Each structure stands twice: as structure tokens, then as C-alpha cells.
């Protein structure tokens, strides 16, 4: 299939390209930008006048819920939702049933993702067997099966010595480890950020130190072991500062933030809506501002959806008895565009945090528009709007943004030159 994309404003953050140009796609690759290759005859033409052409978005945390939790979502449904949000490459966490700690589970996920054909899927393998923090998983076998990084989610290792050994082993094979830094003992039983809102509502709190104490320890172990590390789901301004200090010291660390942390604060919990029940929790306005500044400066180089779809019943109980998490991947581009609307980021910087930044953090072959590279392309209208919830593809409708009118609209998502989503 040969495709010609006419008249788009082409923005590629990785190269600094920002100009109106035509794109030419052949054999799943981007064959030219600007001038048509010799003898090129298009099988289809996409009129992109007034549209932005950008690298397909890269989301570092999308729970596909398969295998084991099909009532919440499936690889087919959640990758289609991702494509509708402008995502062409995504990473899925190891929290499946069975846990993603064997090659067989990784291969099952990759096979079903290829069958669905909506996005490219890069599995995150479990760092420990069963995510129990006791025995190291078969990391090299998982890498060979397609896992691009390894993490234990919010499940802590039983002791720092075992974690240290795991990091040293990962460093030996140049593997990337993903940290979700939250101290289990400090966070245990908590439902919301420990502060004025939680006190007013009578909810048990999770202090900021649950993140910063664990983060400080993890950074010291990273420094000692020399492992490549990515810190996921930062929630506090002090946590972002710890990452900035580590980067200034030359540590090979990157970080991401959940998009909803850049938009919401713990004040959203005031009516006890379980749609705002997330782990780690929403924090204060000061933390919210600190995270936004870290994204602006590039200390946090990736914005992710941290998509966690749930069935309706999972959010119907009283706040403390509901399952945490938001469904958000289908709204990744429109929600992120509110950061441009607010004046926090310009459009090329936002696209960098959604494409080249996350791709570089985990060394993924994605996130750039490069002649000869994969034709993973997002075409969107920056002047149109999206009504969240219309044409919804995720099985999980657990989003507080449903019904909101959001800026921009995804028109086409192309994966290897194939149109995987069209509005």
C-alpha cells in the first residue's frame, strides 16, 4: 500500500522538524518527506490540510487486562482505544493473571496484539516471580520473548538486599528496570493523599514520604548498581526534585507522570467519587504545579495515560472499597492538548513528551518520523474538539472526563503505514 499524505503541518520533535509538507508511505515505511520519491504512485491519498502530522504517540503504561481480567478489558478493545487516542506504540505492565513472568505469557500477549493489529505492544516483564518480591524472574528469557523492561509495580521487594541483587543482575545484561516508588509500610491502608482533603473527608492518608523515602532509596541503589532506571507514576514535587538531582549527578534515570496528575489534585475527591480513586493518589496543588514544571523542564520526559480499565461494578462500592485506576488511553491526545491550551507547553514540546521522550526512556523503536523508519503516524485536527465518551472503545468507562469537551481530535492513526483508526 502506497499512501500520500497531503499538506499537513509535520512536527517531529526528535529532529526539530516543523513545516508544512507532504508525506509518502510505502511498504510500511516513511519513504519521503516533502518531495515524492521517483516513480511513486499512490494507492490512497489522505487530505491533511489543516491537520498536524506527528509521530504516533508512545504510552508507557496501558493495562490490557489480558490474560486473566477479560471482564475489565481485552487486548483487542484496549489497543483499539489506544489507536483512537493517537497511540501507535504502548507498553503493558506485568499485572496479569498469570503474572507476566514467563515467556509463554509474553508470547500470548504479543500474538493477540498482532492479531488485533491496532497498535504495537511492548510488554513489561515482572522483575520478580509472581511479583512477590522474593525470587528474580527469568529476565533474559523474558527479554528474548519480547519484554523491553522489567518492573514490580507497586509490589515492594521483601528487602533491599534482594532488590539490590536484582538491579545488579539487570545491569549485567543492560536491562531497564521500571520503579513505582512507594513504600508499602508508609502507604498501607491509605486511600488518598495525607493532607487537608483526606482529613476533611475522613479518608486514611498516604503521606508524600511514601514516595520520597522509597524514591531516595531506589536512586541510591541505582547509583550503586549502575542499572538503567525509569521511574514511573511520580506524584510529588519533591519526588520530581529528587529525579532532577539524580540526573544532575549523571545517573541514567528517566521519569514519567500520569497525565491525570497534571490535570487533577486531591481536591477532586471532595464528593467521594470513586472515579478519582487512583494509586498512587492524587496529591496537592503544590505537587501538581511541581510536576507540571518538571514536565516543562524535561526532568520528566514522558507523559503516560496509566490506563487501567475497570468493569462498572469495580467503581460502585463506597470509595474505600472500590478498585483504583482510571481508563484514559483513548483520551491521551485530547487531554494532553489541555496543557497547550493552558499555556504550559508549546505543541512541539507536548508531542516530545508523548512520543520521542517515552520512546527514548525505554529505548523503543518508535516516537519519530524518520525517512526509512516505520510509518507510525498520527494525524489530528488541533482546532476541532473531542467529546469524551463518544465512540468509546475501551471496555472501561471509569473516567471522570466522560462528557467533557476536549481540544483537538484524532483523525487518523497509522501503524506501519496501515490506517488502524479513522475518525
Automatic annotation (TrEMBL):
InterPro entries reported in the protein's UniProt record: DHOase, DHOase/Allantoinase_Hydrolase, DHOase_cat, Metal-dep_hydrolase_composite, Metal_Hydrolase
Keyword tags: Hydrolase, Pyrimidine biosynthesis
Domain Dihydroorotase catalytic: 53-236
One MF annotation (Gene Ontology) recorded for this entry: dihydroorotase activity
Top-level division of the source organism's lineage: Bacteria
Pfam families given in the database record: DHOase
This enzyme's EC code(s): 3.5.2.3
Signal peptide: none
Name of the protein in question: Dihydroorotase
Native organism taxonomy: Bacteria, Pseudomonadati, Pseudomonadota, Gammaproteobacteria, Pseudomonadales
